[in-house]
UniProtKB/TrEMBL annotation:
This is Alpha/beta-Hydrolases superfamily protein. Gene3D superfamilies: alpha/beta hydrolase (3.40.50.1820). GO terms for molecular function: hydrolase activity. Residues 97-358 form the AB hydrolase-1 domain. Coiled coil: none annotated.
Length: 374
């Protein structure tokens, strides 16, 4: 045929040819949609990253931080520990005690407890007490790599710089009581004795029977169950969890009155009156390196289980005392009873009809000190 001959195209062929262009448009739209999704995902991840990052602490003595007003020592790594002393002068003291404050407290709370001691006991027994701000609290430097062990070593260095001698006592209240377990583990050779006052327990210590720890865990408010669960399994999310407004975070951080039992509510007015003038001091450098760091360490994975410990005073004659109220809605008495049953060398004091704040009840400071140094 000639080159100019016209070729006939059927209607079906025309329709098939027309349909071929549609996938190209769909492919083009799909590519744009994927890019939009990718940009959105990147933006969401960037927002999430920023939301979970805590703000830097307002370190005491820095340009935008609170002023330094307390006596402080400088540790080997350059950090500072603020402290306050009470009782007889340490150079004439017979018994030197380091007090470790609790969650959302500071060195002044140790002094408030020491102030409940009768003058007769202070003088006759030669009692000296030093209470310090744990890292990040009050006027002590934050410690981003803080661990159970590092805090025990901080206490040892504090005692050395203050000249407390080869041995000293430690008393810890609540989260500070939990810190005492680290002292018994890492610096037992420096201790003359120890007292744990309603110490916070870690529900994930392997020595607890699972049914017992689960039962105690479920006794918390639901929002606190979630708060400690996040601190244990997703510590990087702890700041966001307790600072966002979508749902409630830790009720302890929020000072929810529901966490206190009736005996506690009777003591709280006295404690609030004592701490009114320094109520803002614990958090003044920021909440992450204080409250959130406490939760991450306290409910994290520990290097040791307290229930595996041996008596650190089997040869030296010192003693360990664990005090617990049976009406404590913050720290479950059932877990303290189990710890005491596993560690028969601990002198266990269970107080009937008392709650978490019992150390501040009239006469309790005398009883605790007498048992410890007696």
């Amino acid at each position: 045929m000639a080159a100019g001959t016209t070729r006939k195209i059927s209607a079906a062929s025309a329709r098939a040819h027309t349909r071929k262009s549609k996938p190209k448009a769909a492919f083009k739209f799909s590519g744009i949609f994927k890019k939009i999704l990718l940009v959105g995902l990147v933006g969401f991840l960037a927002w999430g990253y920023q939301a979970t990052r805590p703000p830097p602490p307002k370190t005491c003595g820095s340009e935008d931080g609170p002023p330094v007003t307390a006596s402080r020592i400088q540790l080997k790594d350059g950090r500072y520990l603020a402290y306050e002393e009470y009782g007889v002068p340490k150079d004439v003291a017979k018994h030197k005690i380091v007090f470790v404050h609790g969650f959302d407290n500071c060195r002044h709370h140790g002094s408030a407890l020491a102030a409940n001691l009768s003058p007769d006991i202070i003088e006759s027994r030669g009692i000296y007490v030093v209470s310090f701000d744990r890292p990040g609290y009050g006027e002590s430097s934050p410690h981003p790599t803080r661990t159970v062990k590092s805090l025990a070593l901080d206490i040892e260095e504090l005692a050395d710089q203050l000249g407390l001698g080869p041995t000293f006592y430690v008393i810890g209240f609540s989260m500070g009581g939990q810190v005492v377990w680290g002292c018994l583990k890492y610096i037992p050779h420096r201790l003359a004795g120890a007292a744990l006052l309603t110490p916070v327990v870690n529900y994930w210590w392997p020595g607890f029977p699972s049914n017992l720890s689960q039962q105690a865990y479920n006794q918390q408010l639901v929002q606190d169950q979630w708060a400690v669960r996040v601190a244990h399994y997703m510590p990087w999310l702890t700041y966001w969890w307790n600072s966002q407004k979508l749902f409630p975070g830790s009720s302890v951080i929020a000072h929810n009155p529901k966490i206190f039992s009736n005996p506690d509510k009777e003591i709280l007015p006295k404690l609030i009156s004592l701490s009114k003038e320094y109520q803002a001091i614990p958090r003044q450098q920021g909440e992450f390196e204080t409250l959130h760091r406490d939760m991450i360490i306290g409910f994290g994975s520990w290097e040791f289980d307290p229930m595996d410990m041996k008596n650190p005073f089997s040869e030296s004659g010192g003693s360990v005392h664990l005090w617990q109220g049976d009406d404590d809605d913050i720290v479950p008495v059932t877990l303290q009873r189990y710890i005491a049953s596993q560690l028969p060398w601990i002198k266990y004091h269970e107080l009937s009809g008392t709650g978490h704040m019992f150390p501040y009840a009239d006469g309790m400071a005398d009883a605790i000190i007498q048992a410890l140094v007696g």
